[in-house]
Amino acid sequence: MPQAAPLVILECLVAGTSHRDNLAQHEPQLQLNQSLELRRESDSTFDDWAVQVHTLPEAGAVWLGYLPEGRNETVARLLDAGKRITARLTHKSWEDDWLYLNIEVLLHE
Question: Does domain 7-107 have CATH number 3.30.70.2330?
Answer without folding.
Answer: yes
